[in-house]
Amino acid sequence: MKDELTEFYNIFTDTKKDIESFMAMLDPVINHANDDHERLYYHHIYEEEEQRLSRLAEMIPLIETFQAGKGGDFVPSNNTFNRLLQELNLEKFGLHNFVEHLDLALFQFKDAERQAKLSEMRSANHKSYQFVKEKLAGINARFDTGYTDPHAHHDEHGDHLDHQAHAAPAAKAPIQKTKRSFTVGSLISK
């Protein structure tokens, strides 16, 4: 697991730099947008990447803790290790979204300088995503305890917490017939 953590550390520190570079590229586009649609579009992407930076700011030191041997054992009973696995699995999806954001930007930014930078980032992060996805599948399989939630059967036939599903049926309202009459050019209900 230590070898994988070193690889994850390198991937996520590189990704962090790429996100910061991408956000710097988006910032002037947001500030000088031609219309509200363009501004909101890029602002939405910017905010998602900003949230990823916050998660990476939590996860990278967590990886460092385990690399320094201070995180405890790599066992499911270690809550810190479980948190690390959760963060890594979440960041797998973050990497996927980042690659999609880079793809979207490649459709919009046609100048050679940004195309080259975006293509380079996209290629590196796509490769990282594939690596992380593969490694996490193996790690998750290794640490799968075969735990089955004993309460999972409660939702087999619907959401047992849905209050409306268990409420008494409402009394049927009597059907009222409406009288229709003609007015100047239209029908109205009375």
Automatic annotation (TrEMBL):
Protein name: Encapsulated protein
Composition skew (Low complexity), residue ranges: 166-175
InterPro entries given in the database record: IMEF_cargo
Organism listed in the record: Domibacillus aminovorans
Pfam families: IMEF_Flp (PF24309)
High-level lineage: Bacteria, Bacillati, Bacillota, Bacilli, Bacillales
Biased composition (Basic and acidic residues): 150-165
Region described as Disordered: 148-175
Example of a GO MF term: ferroxidase activity
